[in-house]
């Protein structure tokens, strides 16, 4: 029997706390090698330590962090599409297995692209002082690339496409829907900022931050997907009506 009123509300809140925290913990556990390597980045005391730690963590990220993130997006997909009672462990690890190869390949390409953009940013900022303004263009491109990464994870768990199609469509979707992409980026940025804004709120990182970001990101993607589906259906209906009208005209001519 479904509980209502205050008790029903508290029960639903506790259910969502459980869903978000379990999914987030699974994501972290499957990303442990990357997390071990990212800590030295935070604790680095000089540039050499920082760069070496960043390089090592970037190398391992496509093989651990990216598949785990895709699996987390697979769980978020169930929630957004109304399947809130989907088994968490089974859904997470099924998506981890099914999307591992694509998320790994996509992760390698994204890491390479980010590395190129970061190097170009540093060159224009420090070496070419008369072109420093150009360096801010690379910051904007990196922001777009970060949003397209969220769309890539959403597409990996939602579509059956080849990896390069997913990558191309993720970028095109990000550029083609700038306002939705911007709103998604802002909402996710707020969640991350709150999580790291105070030592008292750092507990959000291991239990909630990742899963909340995944849910927001897939929700934003699904809004775009739904609109595109409606547009495609309307276009198909209009085409069918046009064909029917042409057929009627031909029948009238024959008669």
TrEMBL record:
Give the taxonomic lineage as stored in the record: Bacteria, Bacillati, Bacillota, Bacilli, Bacillales
Q: Which residues cross the membrane?
A: 21-44, 50-73, 100-121, 133-157, 178-196, 202-222
The domain of life is: Bacteria
Q: Which organism is it from?
A: Paenibacillus sepulcri
UniProt keyword list: Membrane, Transmembrane, Transmembrane helix
Name listed for the protein in its UniProt record: DUF624 domain-containing protein
Q: Which InterPro entries match?
A: DUF624 (IPR006938)
